[in-house]
From TrEMBL:
Lineage: Bacteria, Bacillati, Actinomycetota, Actinomycetes, Kitasatosporales
Highest rank taxon of the organism: Bacteria
CDD domains: HTH_XRE (cd00093)
Protein name listed in UniProt: Helix-turn-helix transcriptional regulator
InterPro entries: Cro/C1-type_HTH (IPR001387), DUF5753 (IPR043917), Lambda_DNA-bd_dom_sf (IPR010982)
Protein's organism: Streptomyces himalayensis subsp. aureolus
Domain HTH cro/C1-type: 17-70
N-terminal signal peptide: none
Length: 277
């Protein structure tokens, strides 16, 4: 579904939600309290600013007694081929976040990937995929990264384990360009990046990616990912624990200045390797 038609469909979702809410006599605050979100949250759904998650759509159906209408529509709208089902809501939330903090233990985060890097990562998991499929995934990843170039971009703070800098994805020349891209983003002050060096040894959240997102008018969320699955968490106690984990990672990582020096040094290592092959 093209972005324009998706937006029109979300606007229809919001208009229907408003109509059916008003038919029952609920205010936004009253409906929000019954589905465990704020009234402002409901207002964002109705204005198509924020895309509801399946569990919220399901609770709305129960409260408004709409026979599963909103859940069915939500399922249809998040069935976007560009993203895995479990990641589509995360991509929507990234565009609304005021701050994103991310830890990447082995792979450069999607928001920092070059097209070359994204293509190689996609092919590694889908070696028999068509060119059309691969390019669709690459475009989706590059489109997501546009939020870091917008005037209203979120604060983006990434912690990369040194492993993510050293694995040669796409060959030495491509990897040098990937690391140059990260360094450029840092120097242009579009992102903050720290590196967790090998010398750190054991670390919190060992081997597991973590993404934290904060919003102007909604509770913070945490996202973790495993093989073919992801968990988008908004329980306040769980999110608080995830934030504490991120604080431990930030404390163990190199300073931003030392991290940039390591990124640029790794890029030079790959460039030298490329020139000798």
């Amino acid at each position: 579904m093209a972005n324009g038609s998706r937006q029109a469909a979300w606007e229809f979702f919001g208009a229907e939600l408003k109509r059916r809410r008003e038919d029952t006599g609920f205010t936004q605050v009253e409906l929000g309290s019954r589905v465990f979100v704020s009234g402002a949250y409901i207002g964002q759904f109705e204005q198509a600013i924020r895309k509801p998650q399946l569990d919220v759509a399901h609770r709305i159906d129960e409260v408004l007694q709409t026979g599963g209408f909103f859940e069915r529509m939500c399922r249809k709208l998040i069935n976007d081929r560009r993203y895995a089902d479990y990641f589509a809501p995360v991509a929507e939330l990234e565009a609304l976040a005021k701050e994103i903090c991310e830890f990447a233990p082995t792979v450069v985060p999607g928001l920092l990937q070059t097209a070359e890097y994204a293509r190689e990562v996609t092919l590694a998991s889908n070696p028999l995929a068509t060119d059309e499929y691969v390019e669709e995934k690459v475009r989706a990843r590059i489109d997501r990264a546009q939020i870091l170039k917008d005037a209203t971009r979120p604060v983006y703070w990434a912690i990369l384990h040194e492993t993510a800098l050293r694995i040669s994805v796409g060959g030495p020349a491509a990897m040098a360009r990937q690391l140059d891209h990260i360094a450029t983003m840092v120097r242009e002050r579009k992102t903050l990046v720290q590196v967790l060096p090998y010398a750190t040894g054991a670390y919190a959240q060992m081997g597991k990616p973590l993404k934290l997102m904060e919003f102007e008018d909604a509770p913070p969320t945490a996202y973790t990912e495993a093989v073919y699955s992801g968990n988008l968490l908004d329980d306040p106690a769980v999110v608080k624990r995830a934030q504490a984990t991120y604080d431990l990672l930030r404390a163990a990582a190199l300073s931003p200045e030392a991290s940039l020096a390591l990124i640029e040094s790794a890029a030079e290592d790959f460039r030298r390797c490329a020139s000798t092959t």
